[in-house]
Amino acid sequence: MKLFKSLLVAPATIGLLTPFSVSANEVNLNDISNYSDVENIEFSKSFDKEELTQTTLLAGGEGLVDSYDGSFSTTTTASFGADFVIGAVDGATSEATTFDYQYGMSLSTSFTGEDSLDLTIETGNSASASGTILDMNSMSDAMTLDGITYTFPLGDSLTVMVGDSTDVSALYSTACTYSAFTDLLSDCGSGTAAGLGGGSDFATTDSASSATFAASYDFGNGFTVAGGVSAAGGSSVGLLTNESLDVYGVQAAYNTDSLGVSLSYAMTETSATAETTFIGVNAYYSLDGGPSLSVGFESEDPDSSAEETGYFVGLTWDEFGPGSFSIGMSTLENYTDAETELYQYEAAYSYAVNDGMTITPGIFVTETAGSADDQTGVILKTSFSF
Fold first, then answer.
1. Residue 337 has pLDDT above 90, yes or no
2. What angle do CA 171, 172, 173 make, to 5 degrees?
């Protein structure tokens, strides 16, 4: 970890961890990508999007006080989450039953009551097929600063975000209500167009620096427009140069309680002379007394090869007995007309044991090309938030 990251993370980590005994609350760390809302901090990376309970902290563990000399500001909040996963995947390189974990914390500070400085720190030790399909953190137990952003309003309707190691799509309102179990289906069929990452996601090395600027405008009545740009390049390349790998995205969306649709566009530079464009369409409809239906479609058009397409469909019952049930399918990637499409299927049931603990058993089937057996996995995920 670079020195400036260490200096940023260390004071907060020491002050937070010293007074704490672990307690539980409901969370999924799948979407630690959105740091834009003080009231709704969301963990990403390999977890479903869910609001986290916030705890206001001071360095010594005390409650709020008027003076915070030597402690956190009274406007600093923190949210914590952890996932335990036990599972096995038939047809994988190793079919052994494995155990994985991941942990994350999100810190948020407001200076005006309307702005938000947010950072996310996470770790994990996942190296199994079960952890891979859920996109769990595989950091060999090392704490890592996953992203830092500053979000602020300009007027009543415009929100602006700047940061490092964050997504261009962080302020998007993609029309998808599907409660995904595996990482692939969490993309809702438009993983790049509607889930556009930062420029560093497309760089050839992890050491490339990145910066992201994004903004969203709320017209009211469910209509929103959002977009942004992110650049990645080494210290000798710089940002937004001919040599840097830059990405651009924009989305228009309309969302209500029962109906939503969004149209997304993305352009990614894959080299100094080549780029790929993506168009994604997502929609959902909540049936009266029944499930919510979500669908997605993405078109990918590289400069040097044929156009490719992919799609997704999923159903979610928010009230299915004491919990919720979801079932869905998606193409493994985008395919040309000449290629044979492969699919992934999943089903999962999520049950809240209490306010801080959720258990989700799930099963998935991933098709494989040629004569190789399909992969079938059975996984039990236990999620905590506190």
1. yes
2. 125
CA distance 36 to 42: 9
Residues 263-279 pLDDT 10s = 999 999 877 778 999 99
Looking at domain 155-354, which CATH architecture does it have?
Beta Barrel (2.40)
Cα distances (Å, whole numbers) of residue 354 to 23, 25, 179, 323, 382? 12, 8, 19, 12, 12
Residues 45 and 24: their CA atoms lie apart, in Å, by 20
Q: Which residue has tokens 């438009």?
A: 190
> pLDDT class for 25, splitting at 50, 70, 90?
very low
Average pLDDT rounded to a whole number, residues 240-254: 87
For residue 62, what are its two tokens? Answer: 């005390």
**Burial call 210-239: b when 16+ CB within 10 Å, e when fewer:** bbbebbbeeeeeeebbbbbbbbbbeeebee
**Residue whose structure tokens are 């969490």:** 186
Instruction: Give pTM, 2 decimals.
Output: 0.79
Domain boundaries, the chain: 155-354
